[in-house]
C-alpha cells in the first residue's frame, strides 16, 4: 500500500498560512486572491484547485473557531475550550469585528448554522434551530468584541454554552449523538 500524497495538504497549508500572515498585516477587504497566490508561492490554477475564492480560504481559516461555537451551541464543548477560543478571538478583535459585519458576517453565520444543523436530527425546525443558535452565538461574540457587553472570556463561555438550551428546547430537533470532531485545536492565549 502506498502512502497518500502529502502535496495537496502542504499546498492547502501554504495557502492558509499565507492568508493568516497577510490578514494580520492588512485589511481583509484589501486582500486580493493574487496576493494569496504570490504569498503561498503557488500558481493560479493550483490555488483554484484547493479553494474557489478568497472567502473560501477565510471560512477554512476560521473553521476551528466555528467548530468550537457549534459544539458550544450543541452543549458539547467544555468551558475551557470555549474560553480558549474566546481569548484567541479577543487578541484579534479588530479583525473579528470586521469579519462579523456585512456579507462576511452573514456567510460566517450560514457556515456556523450548517455545522450545527449537520449534528441535529432532521425535522421541520432543524434549520430554524441551527440558524437561531448560530445567530445567538455570533451576536454575543459581536457584542463582546465591540465592547457593548463587557465580561471575561470565562463568563462569555458560560453564556455561549447556555445556547444549547435553544437547541434542546426544540421539540423535533434534538442533537445527534457524538460531538463535532475538531479539525484543529483552537489557539490559546493569555486572558485579555
TrEMBL record:
Residues 182-192 have a biased composition (Pro residues). Transmembrane segments: none annotated. Keywords: DNA-binding. Residues 32-51 bind DNA. Residues 171-181 have a biased composition (Low complexity). InterPro entries: Homeodomain-like_sf, HTH-type_Tx_Regulator, HTH_TetR. Residues 171-192 are annotated as: Disordered. Residues 9-69 form the HTH tetR-type domain. This is TetR/AcrR family transcriptional regulator. It comes from Sphingomonas agrestis.
Amino acid at each position: 500500500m502506498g502512502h497518500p500524497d502529502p502535496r495537496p495538504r502542504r499546498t492547502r497549508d501554504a495557502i492558509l498560512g499565507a492568508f493568516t500572515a497577510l490578514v494580520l498585516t492588512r485589511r481583509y477587504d484589501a486582500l486580493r486572491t493574487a496576493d494569496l497566490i504570490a504569498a503561498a508561492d503557488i500558481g493560479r490554477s493550483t490555488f483554484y484547485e484547493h479553494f474557489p475564492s478568497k472567502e473560501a480560504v477565510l471560512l477554512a481559516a476560521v473553521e476551528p473557531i466555528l467548530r468550537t461555537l457549534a459544539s458550544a451551541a450543541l452543549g458539547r464543548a467544555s468551558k475551557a475550550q470555549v474560553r480558549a477560543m474566546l481569548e484567541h478571538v479577543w487578541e484579534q478583535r479588530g479583525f473579528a469585528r470586521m469579519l462579523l459585519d456585512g456579507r462576511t458576517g452573514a456567510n460566517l453565520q450560514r457556515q456556523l448554522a450548517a455545522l450545527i444543523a449537520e449534528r441535529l436530527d432532521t425535522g421541520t425546525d432543524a434549520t430554524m434551530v441551527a440558524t437561531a443558535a448560530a445567530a445567538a452565538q455570533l451576536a454575543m461574540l459581536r457584542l463582546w468584541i465591540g465592547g457593548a457587553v463587557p465580561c471575561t472570556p470565562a463568563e462569555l463561555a458560560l453564556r455561549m454554552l447556555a445556547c444549547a438550551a435553544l437547541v434542546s428546547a426544540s421539540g423535533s430537533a434534538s442533537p445527534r449523538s457524538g460531538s463535532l470532531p475538531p479539525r484543529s485545536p483552537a489557539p490559546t492565549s493569555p486572558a485579555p
